[in-house]
Amino acid sequence: MGKLQSKFRKRSELYRASEEQQTELSFGSQVVQHQPAHQGSINTVTILRPGLCVSGGSDQAVVVYDWTQGRICQSFQGHNREVTKVLCYQGSTWIFSASRDKTVLMWDLNHGDEPIQEFCGHELVVNGLAVSPDGRKLCSGSRDNWMCLWDIESAKCEQRHNISRNLVTHVCWVPGSSSVVQTSEDKTIRVWDSRSWQVTNTFPAKQYIQTHCDVSPNGHYLVSSSNGFGGQGCEATLWDLRQPGCKVVEYRGHLQTTACCMFLPAAHDGTAHIATSSHDGSIKIWDQNTAVCLGTLFLDGAGPLVSLAPSDPTNLLCASFNSGLHHIQLGPGVNQAQGSGGAAALDIKVVAHF
Q1: pTM for this predicted structure
Q2: Domain range 22-37+203-354, its CATH number among 3.40.50.720, 2.40.50.100, 3.40.720.10, 2.130.10.10
């Protein structure tokens, strides 16, 4: 794998609604146009704190953006190839960014525009980042088949493990746990124990590449998304982490690769929703338990929708290849009594893009 070093731097039944509330969008005067966050395609977006997001893309920049005011707060330049993933440690000002330049950089919003740590040692593009609940460890995963565990304070690689064909696509740390979950191009989901840095569970392989994953806030469920085309594959799957490998439901309806899947913050009425985005240019919101699609939003001309970042139950950010970042708003819609088990549909709209 080369020298590992660092320097201090800068969810079994399938359900599908017979009807979906669908909205097609062509950007117009009804959508607020903010200052662009990036030049070129955007690969990743996450929430730093209410009102602030962090994104990265082909312009190699890591951008902190106030999406309520429509302005760039900070732009970090340190990678020499496109940024593939950004991650924030909640409750702090720490930002981590991964890149095609094979490195992970750590930034602090309050400490200038230079990285405060650099994690070097991967041989190919880094696609997965996760921070332990206590903020002491960083997990990184790459297309080089290596999963690495770093001490954040010293930036030293403490554990590393190579599994043949484990081309990592995404990594999540299970809240309140020592477990790390990762998806891979070998169609497999693996659960790691961060104490021994060994795989403790491997989920049944799916038919297609697993592109992304997310863990519910209570740590009970995992959702993963699938590659595919022509409506084959393209699903998201809900798994029960308490019964490893137990598939609960599948969310089917996208026509091309489902690139991202996220648990949305619980609504005031306690309903649980899943959001997915796809290369077909659509975002879908699902009832987590029944897999009914509550609404679909098509972003005409936006290209692949590759990353989602929920801020609260009604606000969602989306990163696109062709048209930047989008602020999506979710609101109550018309109740779909037929074909949806009485589930309340959602009104999904874009209110701004930047």
Answers
A1: 0.90
A2: 2.130.10.10
